[in-house]
């Protein structure tokens, strides 16, 4: 095997991602550069200590996704706000050289807008751009891979010009299996392994579920849940495990279904009670240690860490070819991981909504060493939810309003649910749930006298329920500014969430106007949406905005914000 020269140049790869694609691309970029003698360290921008490190970096490669309508991903928001500080001098990043690869979809007018904004801001702070900004496009016939591979080749050439490798260096062949990311140490003890319990990473608190109630009517096709969590600390009187304000977001860590966990462990022929005592990177410069409390067991990791219900990425198929004993399976896996095979991979994998278990059942001659599971299967991501309660009204509780996500695998005619949706649907009262709190960009104004215009159809109403509860509790302390709320759903009798509560707030003066659009209840079959009611109230909204009103939109990130 060709070894990397000890003098090889190194740089950082920082990714921001909303769905996990950014992480996958960043790790693929790292592998491709390593094959060409360039050592990199990959890090999530959320974990990167930019205040201390950024001014002293030499080269950073950014992999940037765009969220919603041109916004930076949630994980990048604090970093972006730091870059926007006006007091930074124009040469603040004069020693930094950078390259940016944007990931997006050109069907949106804000295609790769986050990467474009980052590129412009870094230049304005004196940083030097190594090569052109990459614009990977999901709409391309070959998907984002076309631009990723093209841009990576240009980047590799540029880095080799800046930092030449020894003349005798030979790039590592893609068909040679590389070391796994981590070294894993085990010990076998059935009884001890069976007794072990899951311990989430440090940032999580474990809270108890008090209520799990469906709040759409039973015959309606969308199951929306109202969940209430007890956030009191059971070990200390009068203290809470979590503190939150109206507008904050809770991140909830779901778990895999036990049936699916048993299936994948059986497919892979692992002992779920095998104890893992150590997980260390082969090279701490290449990756960080995963957030796993040790000791633990293989069964616990498949239950709580590996996202086995997720959709396998291209690299999964590329790596899987090394672990089959069947030449036909190997040939098929090589094709799926090639550029030419991406259309067929999409038909087989993404379109048919296959998860890791489905694929492993199709390739039955697979034998994978456990340490490679970290390379093959992504970790479970916590799911963000706007908190739908106010701590002033519910000081010991936290509420969440969640629409359960179902989808169909077209050819196989399988109805499936998202991981968190499936978990919420079966979660019983008393269940223990890991979560942590983050501030969002949507907060109440500093003064209750400032007017509000709130637009929140469907479960987008969650944050505004929190706002209204807070206003309800403080209105006795003085006058409130005017507040109007626009809500939308299909039918008054099927999916009007929190109807009685919202109507009470209008009657009590907590809000000055409640306007509800029922898009399917019109006598003349004419669809009425929230934007129609807003157009009706155009003068009212304008007057409020002229008087300093804060304007909020919450809901689906698809067409809804653009329509408004």
UniProtKB/TrEMBL annotation:
<dbReference type="GO" id="GO:0016491">
    <property type="term" value="F:oxidoreductase activity"/>
</dbReference>
<dbReference type="GO" id="GO:0050660">
    <property type="term" value="F:flavin adenine dinucleotide binding"/>
</dbReference>
<dbReference type="InterPro" id="IPR039261">
    <property type="entry name" value="FNR_nucleotide-bd"/>
</dbReference>
<dbReference type="InterPro" id="IPR023173">
    <property type="entry name" value="NADPH_Cyt_P450_Rdtase_alpha"/>
</dbReference>
<dbReference type="InterPro" id="IPR017938">
    <property type="entry name" value="Riboflavin_synthase-like_b-brl"/>
</dbReference>
<dbReference type="GO" id="GO:0005829">
    <property type="term" value="C:cytosol"/>
</dbReference>
<dbReference type="Pfam" id="PF00667">
    <property type="entry name" value="FAD_binding_1"/>
</dbReference>
<keyword id="KW-0560">Oxidoreductase</keyword>
<keyword id="KW-0285">Flavoprotein</keyword>
<feature type="domain" description="FAD-binding FR-type">
    <location>
        <begin position="202"/>
        <end position="446"/>
    </location>
</feature>
<dbReference type="InterPro" id="IPR001094">
    <property type="entry name" value="Flavdoxin-like"/>
</dbReference>
<dbReference type="InterPro" id="IPR001709">
    <property type="entry name" value="Flavoprot_Pyr_Nucl_cyt_Rdtase"/>
</dbReference>
<protein>
    <submittedName>
        <fullName>NADPH-dependent diflavin oxidoreductase 1</fullName>
    </submittedName>
</protein>
<dbReference type="GO" id="GO:0010181">
    <property type="term" value="F:FMN binding"/>
</dbReference>
<dbReference type="InterPro" id="IPR029039">
    <property type="entry name" value="Flavoprotein-like_sf"/>
</dbReference>
<keyword id="KW-0288">FMN</keyword>
<dbReference type="InterPro" id="IPR008254">
    <property type="entry name" value="Flavodoxin/NO_synth"/>
</dbReference>
<dbReference type="InterPro" id="IPR001433">
    <property type="entry name" value="OxRdtase_FAD/NAD-bd"/>
</dbReference>
<dbReference type="InterPro" id="IPR003097">
    <property type="entry name" value="CysJ-like_FAD-binding"/>
</dbReference>
<dbReference type="InterPro" id="IPR017927">
    <property type="entry name" value="FAD-bd_FR_type"/>
</dbReference>
<keyword id="KW-0521">NADP</keyword>
<dbReference type="Pfam" id="PF00258">
    <property type="entry name" value="Flavodoxin_1"/>
</dbReference>
<keyword id="KW-0274">FAD</keyword>
<dbReference type="Pfam" id="PF00175">
    <property type="entry name" value="NAD_binding_1"/>
</dbReference>
<feature type="domain" description="Flavodoxin-like">
    <location>
        <begin position="11"/>
        <end position="156"/>
    </location>
</feature>
